[in-house]
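The instructor's notes for this session suggest beginning with a concrete chain rather than abstract definitions. Hand out the sequence below and ask the class to guess, before any prediction is shown, which regions might be ordered.
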Amino acid sequence: MQYSIWMNSKDQNKDEWKRDFTKLQRAGISNIFLSGKIEDLENALKYAADFNLQIHAWIFTMICNDENIINQHPDWFTVNGLGERSHENPQYVEYYKWLCPTHPEVHEYLREQVKKLCKIPELTGIHLDYIRYCDVILPIGLQSNYNLVQTKEEPQFDYCYCEQCRSAFKQKYGVDPVDLPDQSKNQSWLQFRYDSITNIVNILTEIIHQHNKKATAAVFPVSMQKNVRQEWHKWKLEAVYPMLYHSCYDEDLEWIGKEIRKGKQLLKSTELHCGLYIPAIESNKLMQAIEIAINNNANGISFFDFNAMKDEHWKILQSKVARC
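After discussion, reveal the predicted structure:
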């Protein structure tokens, strides 16, 4: 069983990295999905090997808050059913500024970003996050946070209707998606968006594999695939990490096992590692959550995230390592 953790890099010195890496090693965690600037990743990598830690660059793939990109390439951003670009009117949260996965210039931009990371020799792999569309319907447990009750797809949350997407869809199916009588029920329009995300994943995965690195992704549960347009069982990855954050769905811990089983049934050779949401798991429940993942044949477990882990959580993991 492999244990991983999501972690934000920061301007840390040698002693600080060694302190954090010692904590991870004692807890039996061997994989880190580390976000941040290239120089921060390179700094962390200087010390990771001493602790037998593998670091993957954790990237927010389709999210872009770079002001230079926004100013120079506003046409790269998704358009909702009301004709609003996501960088001008982001839904739910301010940083939800989504790149369009159909746009060829977006493909090239993402290729270059991934190539830069792949040139870091000590990096184990690239971990793709936010590799999807904006949630057309939020998880039920989160809707009240935004004073929403979402029971069906609504145009302000439905992406993407940019010129690139409309033209590509019309060329393939002979109709502009804006002219469909009910976009939410049109299977071809849904599949077009599934395929747009799958295509960009496989473009990036090919680059990652050319550099002999691992390609992995943080994904939504099987029950939420349609709401974010992810058919992740078709992606050419070493592993997927479904974010089985039970509290977001008003579910109990047993729901995690059900979602693992659903995911394992869809996958062939790709591994499935269970993502656990630490803020919703009291330390006295952490071992139960781990055992549910193990008993349902998850290939590993990842914890979100390093900063959410309390002393009690670390003690639980350390005690498990000591018993193994």
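Then share the key points. The mean pLDDT is 97. The beta strands are 2-8, 31-35, 54-60, 125-129, 214-219, 239-242, 271-277, 300-304.
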